[in-house]
């Protein structure tokens, strides 16, 4: 069987694969597909736009939604995610300055961090729905090992394009990786 992709095309030209047999395999495939697509489109963007996209939250958000649906709390998680994302720095920037206004790198990173902070308790909620307090505690420990940087780590003081602190970006990358590990742990538990 050819791995399905967009528009009925193979996700990996010439690749022969079978459908994922477990939740973990489905999640791993989702994450890998996003990485592959990002590797294709990111280099095509102008350098100034690439600088605003050091991370990709889409696979984490989609993985969270997939697991929440499997746990029977998809609507609850989606509603909470929408509600908690209204104060995202990029959203607020667009409301104040207009959707076409240039976004500073600090604001873009702050938006990634805000999204990660919104996902953390929702990942823990999904873990609880899947495996009770035990799995929730395990997931909270994974997430606490790589905390999302605080909002002030990305403050730019109004500068048009400040260099982002490398340590804040590294911490944010670690938080994204911890969220991925937490989602994979939840998927493993669903497979039991």
How much of the polypeptide forms β-strand, as a percent range? under 5%
The number of helical elements comes to 7
Unreliable segments (pLDDT under 50, ≥5 consecutive)?
A: 1-16, 158-163
Distance between the termini: 26 Å
Main sheet specs: none
Radius of gyration, CA atoms, in whole angstroms = 18 Å
Q: Number of domains in the coordinates?
A: 1
- The helix/strand order is HHHHHHH
Average pLDDT taken over every residue = 85
Structure classification: mainly alpha
Could you explain the architecture of this structure?
The chain is mainly alpha-helical. The protein has one domain. Helices cover 63% and strands 0% of the residues. The protein is built from seven helices and no strands. Helix 4 packs across helix 6 (105-144). The longest helix has 40 residues, at 105-144. Residues 1-16 and 158-163 have low confidence and may be disordered.
Could you write a compact summary of the structure shown?
The chain is mainly alpha-helical and 192 residues long. Helices cover 63% and strands 0% of the residues.
Secondary structure blueprint with pairings:
Blueprint (H helix, E strand, L loop, with lengths): L22 H19 L5 H4 L7 H13 L3 H11 L4 H9 L7 H40 L21 H25 L2
Helix pairs in contact: 1-3, 1-7, 3-4, 3-6, 3-7, 4-6, 5-6, 6-7
